[in-house]
Specification:
The protein has nine helices and ten strands. It has 274 residues and is of the alpha/beta class. α5 packs parallel to α6 and α7 packs across α8. The strands form two sheets. Strands 3-2-1-4-5-6 form a six-stranded parallel sheet, with helices on both faces. It is globular. The protein folds into two domains: 122 residues, Rossmann fold; 125 residues, Dihydrodipicolinate Reductase, domain 2 (2-Layer Sandwich).
Length: 274
């Protein structure tokens, strides 16, 4: 495709004026690793005020906000925070373990609060249905953390697909992997069934799936099949400093889903490994 055609899809950026006179009051549920990314983004927004945080680990939320020199109300559970009407929360970021995404998101929506939910959305289909139902009933906005949708390259891909310049899309193939391997820098929360519930597919596979499905308009799948396995994660030699992690590994480190969409065949493969 020539450069002239590609240039037709480049958006002209217009300067946006942000009204900071009224702040969006935000709380963060779960103050671990990924919460740092949420906090960094919120601090760049003049119309956002971080007013509360919650974490099951005693003192963890307080220590988290202290790093950013922010004095906010801290709680030991998402329910305790959301039940405090004096906070007047507008929205929350849910940054907890995968297994608790549904519980926290649903409770926040039921409390009339908008939700930015970390990916993966949840672990089971039943949880996904329950979250969507809660969103519809609440009238609030639920957004899953698929920031690549807003990436300039992905926005252009979507525009080009929708323009018809590629012709009829009939086959899609993607893939992904973690260059640093299985994510265990802060312990085993990404690899245990009790907390993670899903491995490589939920961690990086969801990005591969969403980026492409979003580009083609999220057609309803006719069939979905797949394969997953655990090869690296169950080997003690994979963790030279923590060989005991191999016994705690209970998710997949490789997954390959196959979608048959209407007139489109789509498959991806994702890997946690080196």
């Amino acid at each position: 495709m020539s450069e002239d055609i590609l240039n037709r899809y480049i958006e002209t950026k217009e300067e946006t004026v942000i009204d900071a006179s009224k702040k969006v009051r935000v709380g963060i549920i779960g103050t671990g690793w990924i919460a740092e990314a949420h906090m960094a983004s919120y601090l760049k927004m003049p119309d956002v005020e971080i007013v509360a945080g919650a974490d099951l680990v005693e003192g963890k939320a307080e220590a988290f906000f202290q790093k950013y020199d922010r004095k906010v109300k801290c709680y030991r559970s998402h329910k305790e925070m959301l039940d405090d009407e004096s906070l007047h929360l507008d929205a929350v970021s849910v940054c907890t373990y995968n297994r608790t995404h549904a519980e926290c998101a649903i409770y926040a929506l039921q409390k009339g609060v908008h939700v930015l939910l970390e990916k993966p959305m949840c672990v089971t289909l039943e949880e996904a249905v329950a979250i969507r139902k809660a969103e519809k009933e609440s009238g609030k906005i639920l957004s899953v953390g698929f920031q690549p949708r807003l990436d300039a390259n992905m926005k252009m891909i979507k525009k080009i697909v929708e323009s018809g310049k590629l012709g009829k899309v009939y086959y899609i193939q993607t893939g992904g992997g973690r260059r640093r391997g299985i994510p265990t820098p802060y312990g085993t929360s990404f690899i245990e069934e009790e907390t993670a519930g899903i491995g490589a597919l939920g961690d990086i596979g969801c990005y591969s799936l969403d980026m492409v499905l979003n580009a083609v308009g999220y057609p309803k799948p006719l069939t979905v099949t797949g394969y997953k396995s655990a090869f690296f994660g169950v080997r003690p030699d994979y963790y030279p400093n923590h060989p005991e992690y191999a016994e705690k590994f209970q998710v997949e480190d490789f997954a390959q889903p196959l979608y048959v969409l209407k007139e489109i065949l789509f498959w991806t493969s994702v890997l946690h490994g080196r």
